[in-house]
Design a protein that fits this description.
Helix content is 28%, strand content 22%. The chain has 128 residues and is an alpha+beta fold. It has a 5-stranded mixed β-sheet. It is globular, with a radius of gyration of 13 Å.
């Protein structure tokens, strides 16, 4: 799947964000090893510990639907270019990374896309 297609799916699902506390909607689209895609958006809660990021929501959606490993994650927020995943999300990506790693796709400053590897964003992550 083309990374631009993943970004478009992330943009579309960001419209479903429930983010009344941060007012920072985020959408994510995960590409599984099977070639299937899974989306998620951030869902906030007044008890901040009950909040889930878009990236983890999409990854857990993939796992729930039988995916075992992920190859790529596209992340989009209308509020910020270059919206990178938080530390929690990076660690979860590491847990479910494909043998070839995970590509992280974010919106570039010029509106295009940037691709980074998970290893760039979380060197020496915890793993089995």
């Amino acid at each position: 799947m083309d990374f631009n297609d993943l970004m478009e799916k992330a943009k579309e699902v960001s419209k479903n964000s429930y983010s009344p506390y941060s007012n920072f909607p985020v959408g994510a689209c995960v590409l599984g090893e099977s070639g299937r895609t899974y989306v998620g958006t951030n869902v906030e809660n007044a008890s901040y510990g009950g909040t889930i990021c878009a990236e983890r929501n999409a990854i857990f959606n993939a796992i729930t639907n039988g995916e075992k490993k992920i190859k790529a994650v596209a992340i989009y927020s209308q509020k910020m270019k270059r919206c990178a995943p938080c530390g929690f999300c990076r660690q979860v990506m590491s847990e479910f990374r494909s043998k070839d790693g995970v590509d992280i796709i974010i919106e570039a400053e010029d509106g295009g896309i940037e691709v980074h590897t998970l290893d760039e964003l979380i060197p020496m992550s915890f793993s089995l």
